[in-house]
Amino acid sequence: MVVFAKQTSQYLLTPLRNLPLIILETTARRSIFIPASRISIQETCLPFFVIPLLALFGLSPSFTPQAQDPPSITTAQQDPRFHVLVEQQFLAYEASLTTHCKDIHPDWSRATHHIYGTVELDKDGYPFTAAWAEQVPGTACGQPRRFRAMILVRGGKLTTESMLPGDSETSAQLASDVHEPLLSAALGFAHDIKPSCAIDVLDTHLIGNYPQHGPWQESWLVNICGHRLNIPITFIPDAKGPGTSFSISSNKITDAR
Fold this sequence. Notes:
It contains four helices and 13 strands. By secondary structure, the protein is α+β, with helices and mostly antiparallel strands. It has two domains: 16-162, no CATH class; 172-255. The strands form three sheets. Strands 1, 2, 3, 6, 7 and 8 form a six-stranded antiparallel sheet that branches. Strands 9, 10, 11, 12 and 13 form a five-stranded antiparallel sheet that branches. The chain is globular.
């Protein structure tokens, strides 16, 4: 199984089992008798022993192991400390926009996730390797958002990475590569859109289904110098290599207002 197999990404064509990931696990080789005072929600990662300790915080894992949703993943998603870590990525993404919003309100009761690749379980039924995208609808300074972050666990610690909001299947590198051509395509839409304008990606939507192989389409809701635009983008995986090309048609850009 491949993570982000169709994008130019640091994970490109890397089998999930070979990624440097170690999921939250229970193992006799390590002590789980760690004082709760040593677990701080201000840290940027969760130690591997967090899941076994969740029972101490009233979050006893009473789940039946499933192929797609192992109990340790489900338990982590319910832990307030997990929410804090993921929300740090949401805040970091908002800080990268021109609005620099610090007032976010994710609705965790409506959170969803998408697991990438195959989850490998240990002998106790806990994942040994896993990666998933966490999506949480909410608001940022009163504006609707579909916040998203990539969740990875490696070296015994759960870490998070920023992702575009919404449904985009682009990696961080591919999303970055799109920015300059996207701005060039938008230059003719309004006279005050200039090369110096910043691009704020506010939401992304898949157009149709995401194929296992072949091109796919997305529509990005962006703010460029005060103009909210819907910009359709076609992504085309390279049949002979790991890269992905994309096309943006200026005449298909529409005003989002």
